[in-house]
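Problem 12. The chain below contains 96 residues. Write out its predicted structure in token notation.
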Amino acid sequence: MRWTLGSVLTCTALLAAAGCATDDRQWMKLSEKYTTEDFRRDHAACSKTGKLDDGCMRGRGWVAVNPTGKSETAKDPYAREIGAPTGRPRGTAPGY
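Solution.
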């Protein structure tokens, strides 16, 4: 088989795109023991569209473990958003 420049570039581009589309998160179950086969089965079932469905994995008992150390925390319902500064000096009332 003879490789042309076009076919080599096409294969390289496909491999690069596949390498960029990986999900680096790790998953584990806290409440029960599991095997690699259990994970592979659930991962395949939750990846039907080509992208992993987090809700599906959580529904099957899996918890995402972020390798960077950040944990998945729920948003605090009582936290308020801090807006951009208004540009007024502190202690001055609006309109003065």
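Discussion. The radius of gyration is 24 Å. Students who got a different answer should revisit the alignment rule from Section 12.3.
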